[in-house]
Amino acid sequence: MPTEIKIPAVGESITEVTIAKWLKKDGEAVKRDEVIAELESDKATFELPAEADGTLKIRVAEGETIGIGTVIA
């Protein structure tokens, strides 16, 4: 069963982030807790880990700005 990867809440006043860089490619195997992307807000940069083992299916491109809770993979 696919696991949706959503943008987590990263700070009280942060409502959106930008996908700064995907560290894994679409279709690539990932392991749970492996960092798959770097996210940027106006205040900081964050690492996004995989929530489960599986194959990454990217839904949001690098450089896009999205809201907290958005499914990105």
Pick out its properties:
73 residues, mainly beta, 4-stranded antiparallel β-sheet, 34% strand
Topology:
Elements: E1 16-22, E2 29-30, E3 35-40, E4 45-49, E5 54-55, E6 65-67
Antiparallel strand pairs: 1-3, 1-6, 2-5, 3-4
Short description:
The chain is mostly beta strands.
CATH superfamily of the domain at 16-63: RNA polymerase II/Efflux pump adaptor protein, barrel-sandwich hybrid domain
The gross shape turns out to be: globular
Broad CATH class of the domain at 16-63:
Mainly Beta
Residue ranges: pLDDT <50 for 5 or more in a row?
A: none
How many helices in DSSP terms? Answer: 0
Give the CATH architecture of the domain at 16-63.
Beta Barrel
Strand order of the largest sheet: 4-3-1-6
Portion in strands: 25-35%
Largest sheet: 4 strands, antiparallel
Description of the structure:
There is one protein chain. It is built from no helices and 6 strands. The mean pLDDT is 95.
